[in-house]
């Protein structure tokens, strides 16, 4: 399913993000940058040890206390088809009254900003925060789609953003939100 946002395309697919060919895939990391479950586990398992080595270097050199929620950093794609992995930390859901939406928006925004700064044209996101971090998928989809839409309207260096949903249920939720917020192509 595809939508036009300015000159860019926003695409939704049901897939495994580690199989995606894009300039960058985004990892739903945690602040340690040292791996975890869900997307993070899959990225490091399939991507191989080079990604983790680069993450450790970033920890040592830039973020000794961990990457703050809403920030993003970039490594190579290791053995993945994607050229780069952007690691971002979404918020842990704590009822919705602890700036979760603002922090989730920032995670998407900063990932796109970093991709654009690197000259990348295509970026694929998972549904950040809706797994182990417990963010309700419907609420998260509204924040995610709005953040990407606003970003793509604000600047036009990124050509394609793909949401990669792992389950049919998540795909249906994101598709409904996208239809509400965007014009189909
Ligand atoms: P978080 O800790 O930010 O909640 P998770 O990785 O636990 O991140 O989950 C985020 C979302 O990604 C969940 O909807 C989960 O089902 C989904 N997911 C898990 N593995 C993959 C994968 N390999 N590709 C795409 N999505 C995935």
The CATH class designation is Alpha Beta
Got a strand count? 7
Bound molecules: adenosine-5'-diphosphate
Q: Look at the structure and give the mean pLDDT.
A: 97
In the predicted model, the low-confidence regions spanning at least 5 consecutive residues are: none
**Shape field:** globular
Please indicate the count of domains.
Answer: 1
Number of helices: 5
Order of helices and strands: EEEHHEEHEHEH
Spell out the CATH superfamily: Leucine Aminopeptidase, subunit E, domain 1
From the alpha-carbon coordinates, what is the Rg to the nearest angstrom? 15 Å
Major β-sheet annotation: 7 strands, mixed
CATH topology: the name is Leucine Aminopeptidase, subunit E, domain 1
The share of residues in helices is 25-40%
From the N-terminal CA to the C-terminal CA, the straight-line distance is 9 Å
In the CATH hierarchy, what is the architecture at level 2? 3-Layer(aba) Sandwich
Structural category is: alpha/beta
In percent, how much strand structure appears in the residues?
A: 15-25%
If strands are numbered along the chain, what order do they take across the biggest sheet? Answer: 1-2-7-6-3-5-4
Structure in words:
The radius of gyration is 15 Å and the shape is globular. Strand 1 (2-5) and strand 2 form a beta hairpin. It has helices at residues 38-47, 49-61, 100-117, 137-154, 168-181; strands at 2-5, 8-14, 24-29, 72-76, 84-89, 122-125, 160-165. The longest helix is centred in the middle third of the chain and has 18 residues, at 100-117. It has 185 residues and is an alpha/beta fold. The termini are close together. It has a single domain (2-182), classed as Leucine Aminopeptidase, subunit E, domain 1, CATH 3.40.220. The protein binds adenosine-5'-diphosphate (ADP). Adenosine-5'-diphosphate is lined by residues 16-18, 28, 37-40, 42, 90, 126-133, 164, 166, 170.
């Amino acid at each position: 399913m595809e939508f036009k946002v300015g000159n860019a395309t926003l695409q939704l697919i049901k897939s495994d993000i580690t199989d995606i060919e894009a300039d960058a895939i985004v990892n739903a990391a945690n602040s340690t940058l040292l791996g975890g479950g869900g997307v993070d586990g899959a990225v490091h398992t399939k991507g191989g040890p080079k990604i983790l080595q680069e993450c450790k270097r970033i920890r040592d050199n830039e973020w000794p206390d961990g990457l703050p929620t809403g920030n993003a950093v970039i490594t190579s794609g290791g053995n993945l088809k994607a050229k780069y992995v952007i690691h971002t930390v979404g918020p842990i859901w704590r009822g919705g009254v602890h700036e979760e939406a603002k922090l989730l928006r920032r995670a998407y925004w900063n990932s796109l900003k970093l991709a654009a700064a690197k000259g990348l044209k295509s970026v694929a996101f998972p549904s950040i925060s809706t797994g182990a971090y417990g963010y309700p998928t419907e609420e998260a989809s509204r924040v995610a789609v709005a953040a990407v839409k606003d970003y793509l309207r604000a600047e036009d260096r990124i050509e394609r953003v793909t949401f990669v949903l792992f389950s049919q249920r998540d795909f249906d939720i994101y598709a409904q939100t996208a239809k509400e917020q965007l014009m189909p192509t």
